[in-house]
Amino acid sequence: MIRAAKVLGAGALVGLAGLVWGSVERRFPKVTAVSVPGRPGTARLRILQVADAHLWPSQRWEVDFIASAADVPFSLCVNTGDNFSDPGALDMAKQAFAPLLRRPGVFTFGSNDYFGPHFKNPFRYFFGTSSADERPEVPDLPHAALAEFFEGAWQDVRNRAVDLQVRALPAEGDPAPVANVSIMGVDDPHIDRDRVPSPPAGWEQADLRIGVSHAPYRRVLDAFTEAGADLIICGHTHGGQVRVPFVGALVNNSDIPLEYASGLHDWCAGGRTAKLFVSKGLGTSKTAPLRFWCRPEIAFIDINPAN
Fold it and tell me: Can you list the domains of the chain with their CATH numbers?
């Protein structure tokens, strides 16, 4: 009995330590850098992705971290949604993203741009994704005001496609050339708002073709890949949010394989292959404010021309 009590006590201490560390780790964001081969002869591009901020009024540190990304040269910002989790965080979102609006960008939304969070049993994620049926029918977050703010400088790619001209990174001693980027985007597949658009007019001739979605669902990844996207950028999964060392994510709240929960991967469909990058994101739900072995991140994706 005494031995069993000691084992239980030790287990409780380990669990408590994990919870404490999880609440600390979520406040230590990092910058992730990845490199993707581009088309031969094209200029070098850098994409900043910001995902899953889930801002609420006490997240001042996150506002400052997002704003600081403006200090790094980049060609295009891709915001993959879930920007806030509280109606009172709209002004915080504006403060966080205002410095980034000085450069070209696109945005889509996630469920937490439309609907505030509510408590869910965390163990249900082991048996499937959280359901759109669990949310109210009418959005309760000021998504229209946030969209209007972004639209002052960026393109809305919720079920839309656009052609953009962006500045490439300058080569040594040379001015930054202009590159043509074509983008297909969808609204959040996690709540069945996705409608894949037709490619934009400049798709075939573009220096870079990008698919953008908040959540990485197979049907959307397949559609972008079959259309000829070079790169697909998503968030939503939080990288699993709680990861096991040497194992990785246990859940990803999507229908892709667990090993695709974060990072850079190849995605194949219709005889074609695209590079898929899934960000761990920055925030957490208000109802589960912790991360373990899964530091929050913003990502810079460098597109380096192939030889």
Answer: 1-304 (3.60.21)
